[in-house]
Write a structure and sequence with these properties.
The protein has 151 residues and is mostly helical. The chain is built from 8 helices and no strands. Helix 1 crosses helix 2 and helix 2 (34-53) packs antiparallel against helix 3.
Length: 151
């Protein structure tokens, strides 16, 4: 029998795997934009499930899950009128929104505890064909954790 796998089944992601600094950042994001906070939780859940499905190392699964929780942390510095806009973004607004990847990366790099997770923040919008951002990476140039988070 083929193994049945449900990406949407409940997985208990233990928030105590996140240290106080990470939880503080996510709570700030929650105060700014509840949708983005919920999105980060959902992406972390799916990332964890995909890593389990791929039979990756347990420590790598935890690492990827934390990267996924923090992947949009740079949105803390996106103006609320853009972040919370209900209609389509203009080209200029979209360019501002795209900066959340580098902002999140810079935030993580400035903090020793967050530094290991910086790649998730920076590279989660890269595309295998090189059309992603911010660096236009292709295929194997994109770190595995960022490829999983992107899905």
């Amino acid at each position: 029998m083929k193994e049945q796998f449900d990406f949407y089944s409940k997985t208990v992601l233990k928030s105590y795997n996140l240290d106080d600094k990470m939880r503080y950042q996510l709570n700030m994001l929650d105060n700014l934009d509840v949708f983005t906070r919920k999105h980060c939780e959902n992406v972390a859940n799916l990332t964890c499930r995909m890593c389990e499905y791929m039979h990756l190392n347990k420590n790598f699964i935890i690492y990827c899950t934390i990267c996924a929780y923090l992947h949009d942390i740079g949105k803390l510095f996106i103006p609320p009128n853009i972040l919370q806009k209900q209609s389509a973004l203009t080209d200029e607004e979209y360019e501002v929104m795209k900066t959340h990847t580098v902002i999140g990366y810079d935030m993580c790099m400035k903090d020793l505890k967050l530094r290991p997770y910086a790649v998730g923040a920076r590279s989660h919008h890269e595309a295998l064909n090189g059309t992603g951002y911010p660096d236009g990476l292709k295929k194997k140039e994109i770190p595995l954790e960022a490829q999983i988070i992107r899905v």
